[in-house]
Amino acid sequence: MRKQLQGIALILFSILLTLTFEVMKIKYVFDLSLHWACIFLLIGLIGIIMVFEKPKS
User: Fold this and answer.
1) What was the pLDDT predicted at 28?
2) Prediction pTM value
3) Whole-number pLDDT of residue 19
4) How far apart (Å, rounded) are the C-alpha atoms in residues 44 and 57?
5) Tens digits of per-residue pLDDT, 1-57?
6) Dihedral sign, Cα of residue 27, residue 17, residue 32, residue 45
7) Nearest one of 37, 11, 3 to 22, comparing CA atoms
8) With left for phi above 0 and alpha for psi between -120 and 50, is residue 30 left, alpha or beta?
């Protein structure tokens, strides 16, 4: 259950960061042509994997 809560927390955190960075008009990661939303999407995907992963015990 703890792993699921961590995954859900990661998903919610990535949504929060995506929305706040969009409001602040911050789009790019430093001088790279990479958008912050792509990084937060990756974090959300990791959270979804953690939620649906079967416990090892």
Assistant:
1) 78
2) 0.66
3) 84
4) 25
5) 677 888 888 888 888 888 887 778 777 777 777 888 888 888 888 888 888 777 777
6) negative
7) 37
8) left
Show the tokens assigned to 42.
């990756």
- Distance (Å, rounded) from C-alpha 52 to C-alpha 3? 9
Name the one residue in this structure whose structure tokens are 């969009």: 22
Report d(CA 34, CA 10) in Å as an integer: 20
Confidence (pLDDT) at 1: 67
Angle at 55 between CA 47 and CA 53, to 5 degrees: 35
Backbone angles phi, psi at 35, to 5 degrees: -85, 145
Rounded CA-CA distance 43/13 in Å is 9
For 6, the token pair is 């961590």
| CA–CA distance, 40 with 26 (Å, rounded to integer) | 13
